Automatic annotation (TrEMBL):
Cross-referenced CDD domains: L1-EN
Name this polypeptide is given: Endonuclease/exonuclease/phosphatase domain-containing protein
UniProt-listed InterPro entries: Endo/exonu/phosph_ase_sf, Swc5/CFDP1/2
Domain of life: Eukaryota
Classification via SUPFAM superfamilies: DNase I-like (SSF56219)
């Protein structure tokens, strides 16, 4: 069983789902969405809708204009070493994520954000330019293949890969052994709202106070009405 709930810290609302408090370890799983006052109001305007799927997935729905936004925060399992590990970790994770996404109203903008423990290659850009942009930075791994397939199936865009930045502003995590930096944290958005994502980049000095070895991923979002018109026509 996992722990989940909502709490207020100063002017922020924290909506969380994590490993059971009776079974905490240093590497315990957990995800959360932190809302400022304006976002909290948007959340309450839709009836404070949220769902703790498990210790790796939590969903929050916000009332925004001109379209509502469903935010899904995730923490994917590490890249599997063998098929047995994949069948007990990665496969169930993506099954749960698919079930969660299927519950989201089709009219919503969807943002799926978090640590996917996946590496995406620019090679995927050559085969599917609508999913992966030209600025992927890694060699694809098994989790990357799962992420790519999930996005292709659900008409999602891996928005990080469409913005060119210096490597220090693209890669969010350093392997402790090889000391190699990788892009593991992603922001996925449904394709019809791709133009609303104006930038995605890593900020290396912003996450040091919260006890994580990943750097902060910032998404700059601005609604464009043409996205709304396309949705209505569809």
């Amino acid at each position: 069983m996992y722990d989940c709930g909502t709490t207020t810290v100063n002017d922020y609302t924290l909506i969380y789902s994590g490993h059971s408090s009776s079974d905490k370890t240093r590497s315990a799983h957990g995800v959360a969405v932190c809302l400022n006052k304006q976002a909290t109001t948007a959340w309450k305007n839709l009836g404070s809708t949220w769902e703790a799927v498990n210790e790796r997935i939590v969903m929050v729905r916000l009332a925004c204009k001109p379209i509502n936004v469903s935010v899904i925060a995730v923490y994917a399992p590490i890249n599997p070493k063998n098929q047995q590990m994949a069948s007990t970790t990665s496969d169930p994770f993506y099954a749960d994520l698919q079930t969660t996404l299927d519950k989201v109203p089709k009219s919503d903008m969807v943002l799926i954000i978090g640590d996917f423990n996946a590496r995406i290659s620019v090679q995927q850009h050559t085969t599917s330019r609508n999913v992966v942009g030209p600025h992927a930075v890694d060699t694809i791994n098994e989790n990357g293949e799962r992420l790519f397939d999930f996005c292709s199936l659900n008409n999602l865009v891996i928005s990080n890969t469409f913005f060119q930045h210096k490597p220090i502003h693209q890669k969010s995590w350093m392997h402790p052994g090889s000391k190699t930096w990788h892009m593991l944290d992603y922001a996925l958005v449904n394709k019809q709202f791709r133009s609303s994502i104006e930038d995605v980049r890593v900020h290396r000095t912003a996450a040091g106070a919260i006890g994580t070895d990943h750097h902060l991923l910032r998404i700059k979002l601005k609604f464009h009405l043409r996205s709304r018109r396309k949705l209505i026509k569809a």
